[in-house]
């Protein structure tokens, strides 16, 4: 960071929605309810899991952590974006940009490893149900979350340090609405092809390694499910994995499109469009996909609402 602070650039200007100057107020009106609804659905998910003892299982523990992570992720990016949609000067300080990149990379990388942990949870539940309580005890679950966070923070710190140790002497205009890796690299005065390859490889590590672990888990899961004697049993087993598979597909699809490409093949407008999906829409859909389509969670939510309504009457 010290080397970065010696450069002429003291702040960055966001140009992510500059081509839609006449529509920025409409975008604010559209994005604000989505953001508030995202906060609300994730808060309801976390509160229901905490309050209902029937949901005190490893699967819902990971879901609560996932909802908390996504709430923090959107908080790092979306409020600043909403303010900038109404502001004339859309700037962020050099240090603020570095902190934003470090934080969202930490949360994003941790998210990838957390999805792998959730895949392992489904593997144990279906392939080794008799030892599920033993293999997925509270300490194991906490350890998996801690390992996901440690890996995420380490990789985020390495990438952020590599990016912000580059010299920034010329342009300070970012064709994006937050400090993502590619737009910041594009305004660096000089960076070697090697540094860019290293960053892409680290991003690939975050995406490909957890994805491979998930694929291995589901190969064993599918092998076990097809041996179930009843059709109903196979359907129930697949339904418990369907939500996780949908979230994995959305997360890794969007993230791979953004981060597994070199600078020369990237488009600022495409990156901004995809970024809107995984900073606003994905955190909105995930609790809906995981929770509201889950009968067990819906029952717990009704019980929690019922208890809340009955409290004033007492």
Automatic annotation (TrEMBL):
Cited function: Odorant receptor.
Entries under Gene3D superfamilies matching the protein: Rhodopsin 7-helix transmembrane proteins
Pfam families, per the entry: 7tm_4
Taxon lineage: Eukaryota, Metazoa, Chordata, Craniata, Vertebrata
Organism of this sequence: Callorhinus ursinus
Transmembrane segments: 12-38, 59-78, 98-120, 140-164, 197-225, 237-260, 272-292
A GO cellular component entry from the record: plasma membrane
Database matches in CDD domains: 7tmA_OR10A-like
Topology in membrane: Multi-pass membrane protein
Gene designation per UniProt: LOC112814963
Family matches, as InterPro entries: GPCR_Rhodpsn (IPR000276), GPCR_Rhodpsn_7TM (IPR017452), Olfact_rcpt (IPR000725)
Protein name according to UniProt: Olfactory receptor 10K2
């Amino acid at each position: 960071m010290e080397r970065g602070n010696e450069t002429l650039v003291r702040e960055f200007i966001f140009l992510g929605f500059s081509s839609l100057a006449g529509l920025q107020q409409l975008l604010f009106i559209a994005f604000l309810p989505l953001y508030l609804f995202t906060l609300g659905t994730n808060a309801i998910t976390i509160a229901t899991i905490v309050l209902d003892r029937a949901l005190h299982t490893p699967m819902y523990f990971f879901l609560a952590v996932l909802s908390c992570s996504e709430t923090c992720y959107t908080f790092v990016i979306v409020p600043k974006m909403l303010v900038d949609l109404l502001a004339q000067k859309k700037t962020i300080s050099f240090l603020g940009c570095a902190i934003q990149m470090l934080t969202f990379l930490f949360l994003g990388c941790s998210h990838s490893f957390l999805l792998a942990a959730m895949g392992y949870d489904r593997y144990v539940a279906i392939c080794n149900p008799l030892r599920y309580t033993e293999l997925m005890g509270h300490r194991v679950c906490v350890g998996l979350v801690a390992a996901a966070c440690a890996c995420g923070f380490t990789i985020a710190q390495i990438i952020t340090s590599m990016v912000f140790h580059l010299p920034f002497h010329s342009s300070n205009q970012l064709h994006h609405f937050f400090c993502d890796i590619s737009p910041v690299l594009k305004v660096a005065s000089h960076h070697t092809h090697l540094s860019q390859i290293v960053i892409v490889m680290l991003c690939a590590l975050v995406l490909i390694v957890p994805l491979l672990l998930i694929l291995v888990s589901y190969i064993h899961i599918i092998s076990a499910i097809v041996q179930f004697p009843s059709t109903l049993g196979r359907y129930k087993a697949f339904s418990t994995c369907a939500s996780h598979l949908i979230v994995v597909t959305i997360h890794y699809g969007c993230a791979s499109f953004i981060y597994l490409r070199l600078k020369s093949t990237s488009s600022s407008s495409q990156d901004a469009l995809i970024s809107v999906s995984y900073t606003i829409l994905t955190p909105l859909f995930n609790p809906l996909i995981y929770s509201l389509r889950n009968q067990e969670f819906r029952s717990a939510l009704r019980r929690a609402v019922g208890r809340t309504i009955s409290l004033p009457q007492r």
